[in-house]
TrEMBL record:
Pfam families: Mur_ligase_M (PF08245). The lineage of its organism: Bacteria, Pseudomonadati, Pseudomonadota, Alphaproteobacteria, Hyphomicrobiales. Keywords: ATP-binding, Ligase, Magnesium, Metal-binding, Nucleotide-binding. The keyword Mitochondrion does not apply. Its EC number is 6.3.2.17. Belongs to the folylpolyglutamate synthase family. The keyword Magnesium applies. GO terms for molecular function: ATP binding; dihydrofolate synthase activity; metal ion binding; tetrahydrofolylpolyglutamate synthase activity. GO terms for cellular component: cytoplasm. This is tetrahydrofolate synthase. GO terms for biological process: tetrahydrofolate biosynthetic process. It comes from Mesorhizobium wenxiniae. It catalyses: (6S)-5,6,7,8-tetrahydrofolyl-(gamma-L-Glu)(n) + L-glutamate + ATP = (6S)-5,6,7,8-tetrahydrofolyl-(gamma-L-Glu)(n+1) + ADP + phosphate + H(+).
């Protein structure tokens, strides 16, 4: 397979600069100043933080804006298969992933501007985001936070059109703190004085209070899920409600009841950013939204051919207990509508609460096949991961790969066509899409 030019540039950076994150904004600010502060020359920015739901909110926001005819730049992280997925440049009829030549040139220019100074690769690639987005015309920019908020490299935007805080729960405790109120405070770091903020559905009252108090202290117009806007299911439809009234919409194309709240946060955010959203536009966006690797029905490909005949195969990159809960709820909803025996193929990395993730599936999953995550040095050995699943009350066994798990299930299962969830890590989701021959486009 031919190595892309941008990949070569990134590999060169990784050999020169440290991995991981720098919990300050000094280095990224210095680099951006050398580049002419491109982050100050962007169209209206929707800046999204949160533990879970950031990507879905970004996907819904993009769908809403593009359904309105707007041209939209989108930055998300991490990628699943190719680095290019992080950079979607605005285009008529819908954005396109950045072309390799354009991407490689931007990386080279940013690296040159850095002049060999100490910096992380993530900071350089964030600077690439702002450089690219400032050089190509668009009507709006959607930027997803990488880690936390307050010290995330994306948090150099001084006046976002709107800041969005999606559900906050425990994750990345070694960086952000071991209590949900500490994590909420870090996420709230993207809220800027007098700029609108949308607070998505929060499970933790403590987290919600921290976010509301931050918005009040900074004199921000705040729009809170459950108070200023909400969404609910009625007769198979999605009903969105805010101070402007009700919209009766098609249910979100992304499966799971949690996506109603994510979609609602996106509608509120796009409106708070100053864009009008008609009933027709919102309905079109709900029907067309896509978000690879998050409760995605695995497209027909090389891996799906190994599964039991008629199997219903889903892929999800969620990797913390909060994600486990919403995915389990989505699968339980499917079970109510179309009962099938459920099997889980899971790989996780060692910075995640594995038992906490698995516990959400107790009583729902018939058996778990644990696999290594080949793309991560932090992969939990499949034998150890099986032990974590058993500790959570599940039946589990280690298998060497997703392909082998699918073939083992095909050769040993003699019941009705099963439902299969492949999950536990975005690294795993990316590897599966690549092996299946169906990467994001």
């Amino acid at each position: 397979m031919t190595t892309l030019a941008a990949d070569r540039e990134i590999e060169s950076l990784m050999s020169l600069h440290p991995k991981g994150f720098d919990l300050s904004l000094d280095r990224i600010s210095r680099l951006l100043e050398r580049l002419g502060n491109p982050q100050d020359h962007l169209p209206p920015v929707i800046h999204i933080a949160g533990t879970n739901g950031k990507g879905s909110c970004a996907a819904f926001s993009r769908a809403l804006l593009e359904a309105s005819g707007h041209r939209v730049h989108v930055h998300t992280s991490p990628h699943l298969v190719n680095w290019h997925e992080r950079y979607r440049l605005a285009a008529d009829g819908g954005g396109r992933l950045v072309e390799d030549k354009v991407f490689a040139d931007a990386i080279a220019r940013v690296a040159k501007a850095n002049e060999g100074q100490k910096i992380t690769v993530f900071e350089i690639l964030t600077a690439v985001t702002f450089l690219l987005f400032s050089e190509y015309p668009a009507d709006a920019v959607i930027i997803e936070v990488g880690l936390g908020g307050r010290f995330d490299a994306t948090n150099v935007i001084s006046e976002p059109a709107v800041s969005v805080i999606m559900p906050v729960s425990l994750d990345h405790e070694s960086f952000l703190g071991d209590r949900v109120e500490l994590i909420a405070a870090e996420k709230a770091g993207i809220i800027k004085g007098s700029c609108p903020v949308v607070i998505g559905a929060q499970e933790s009252e403590t987290a919600l209070q921290v976010l509301i108090e931050t918005a009040e202290r900074l004199d921000c117009p705040a729009f809170v899920y459950g108070q200023d806007f909400l969404a609910f299911e009625e007769n198979g439809r999605m009903v969105y409600q805010d101070e402007d009234g009700l919209m009766d919409l098609s249910p979100p194309r992304l499966p799971g009841r949690h996506q109603f709240a994510n979609a609602a946060a996106a509608i509120a955010a796009v409106k708070a950013a100053g864009f009008e959203i008609s009933h027709r536009v919102a309905d079109k966006a709900m029907a067309n939204v896509t978000w690879p690797g998050r409760m995605q029905k695995l497209p027909q490909g090389r891996l799906t051919e190994l599964a039991p005949k008629g199997a219903d195969i889903w892929l999800d990159g969620g990797h913390n207990p909060g994600a486990g809960v919403v995915v389990a709820e989505a699968l339980a909803e499917q079970e109510e509508k179309n009962p099938r025996p459920l099997f889980l193929i899971s790989g996780m990395i060692n910075t995640k609460d594995q038992s906490g993730y698995f516990s959400a599936f107790k009583g729902l999953v018939r058996h778990v096949y644990t696999v290594p995550v080949s793309l991560s040095e932090a992969s939990v050995p499949n034998e150890e991961l099986a032990i974590r699943a058993v500790e959570a009350g599940l039946s589990a066994e280690p298998v060497s790969s997703v392909a082998n798990a699918l073939m083992l299930l095909r050769d040993t299962w003699d019941g009705p066509p099963p439902r299969i969830l492949i999950s536990g890590s975005l690294y795993l989701a990316g590897a599966v899409l690549a092996e299946n021959g169906t990467p994001p486009t």
